[in-house]
Amino acid sequence: MLIGVPKEIKNHEYRVGMTPAGVYELVRHGHQVLVESNAGLSIGYGDEDYIKAGATVTHSVQEIFAECEMIVKVKEPQASEYQMLRPGQLLFTYLHLAADPEQTKGLLDSDCVAIAYETVTDDFGGLPLLAPMSEVAGRLAIQAGAHALERHKGGCGVLLGGVPGVKPANVVVIGGGVVGLNAARMAAGLGADVTIFDRNLNLLKKIDNDFQGRIKTIYSNHMNLEKAICSAHMVVGAVLIPGAAAPKLVSRSMLKEMKKGAVLVDVAIDQGGCFETSMPTTHESPTYIVDDVVHYCVANMPGAVAKTSTLALTNATLPFVVELANKGWKQAVQENHHLLNGLNICRGNITYYAVARDLGYNYVDPLSCL
User: Fold this and answer.
1) What's the CATH code of the domain at 288?
2) Cα-Cα-Cα-Cα dihedral of 225, 230, 235, 240, to 10°?
3) Residues 284, 329: one domain?
């Protein structure tokens, strides 16, 4: 199979869909890889590294989309990219379609086949291709939020861990999944006063045992959440419903009860965000202020630490890329129900229920497309 790796073009996105090690693995399996020139340069992988691994390097992204049977990316295709997709061509990347009707229409119109990293599953009920970036985003949320708390950034001027004689910042994390747990761990490690909210009592019990009470746990309901947010210096939104739009858990009216200069970090922004006032931002202009509350809503947070993120992501995606290349997408999804769960778009049909429901399309059983 001929596999294409274009350079990412989203604002300040420095990750790359495949490392030279991934190219080497695919070539060993008898495949060809076409990589856009400078695709990995920002994180230290030059064209010569890809060539040594067995790839062919091209300066033409049009050639990649015109010739390759499978396109491997990191972020969702931008308009100029999905307009180049061909009927039956396989796209393997993050999509987050439920919050992006324009991209969804573009993919449907292209008649391509699109498998989304974020809905591929595993035998343990997890999302193995989302988890690595969730770990990065959770930890980065605290790092970014701590900077946003600085007074010259619009924050209230509170140091996350405090100092002797001065209380630390109060951090509320909504959601105890991979993102939330990593955010809570990072905040607690920096000395903050951390509370995590979730509706899974078994999960809350585990967090309480693991951290010996260092991280407080509270059952998530509206009353508990509203009370906690009023005293928070930082709130991290880490709620995930796989493939679906994120629920709006913090309303505009709740902002008026928050501390002036408090910070909201919405890690769920890829899925539409879990704060009513959330709007996607970029690394170039990461924050904005509503009702004296700073909002950090960067839609590709892990791109800020692109080297770490690329290695973590491609470690997880490569086995699936090899499987799709070796078998072809039809056989691969028939034999691997975890890949089938990743199939979001198939030849003009939406084949993931939550996406179809949230965007008002008819849902088509993915097996019927095979």
Assistant:
1) 3.40.50.720
2) 20
3) no
Question: Based on the domain organization, do 165 and 179 belong to the same domain?
Answer: yes
Give me the catalytic one of 96, 233, 295, 338: 96
What distance lies between CA 198 and its chain's CA centroid? 20
What whole-number distance in Å separates Cα of residue 340 and Cα of residue 301? Answer: 27
E runs forming strands in 102-232: 113-116, 170-174, 193-198, 216-219
pLDDT digits (tens, 9 = 90+) for 62-92: 999 999 999 999 999 999 999 999 999 999 9
User: Rounded to 5 degrees, what are φ and ψ at 158?
Assistant: -105, 130
Q: Which residues contact 163 (CB under 8 A, 6 or more apart)?
A: none
Q: Indicate which residue of 47, 266, 270, 358 is catalytic.
A: 270
- Measuring CA to CA, which residue among 177, 173, 199 is closest to residue 263? 173
Domain count, the chain: 2
Q: What is the pLDDT of residues 137-186, one digit of tens each?
A: 999 999 999 999 999 999 999 999 999 999 999 999 999 999 999 999 99
Catalytic site includes residue 270: yes
Going by C-beta distance under 8 Å and a sequence separation of 6 or more, which residues neighbour residue 1?
Answer: 31, 32, 69, 70, 325, 328
Model confidence pLDDT, tens digit, residues 200-242: 999 999 999 999 999 999 999 999 999 999 999 999 999 988 8
**Alpha carbons 345 and 107: distance in angstroms, whole number:** 7
Asked if pLDDT for residue 336 goes beyond 90, the answer is yes
The domain in which residue 162 lies consists of: 131-304
- The answer to whether 337 is a known catalytic residue is no
Q: Do 172 and 259 have their domain in common?
A: yes
- pTM of the full structure: 0.92
Domain boundary among 278, 304, 330: 304
pLDDT-derived band at 243 (thresholds 50, 70, 90) equals confident
Q: Residue 235 is inside which H or E element, if any?
A: strand 234-237
Residues 80 and 22 in one domain: yes
Residue 213: exposure state from Cβ atoms within 10 A (0-12, 13-18, ≥19): exposed
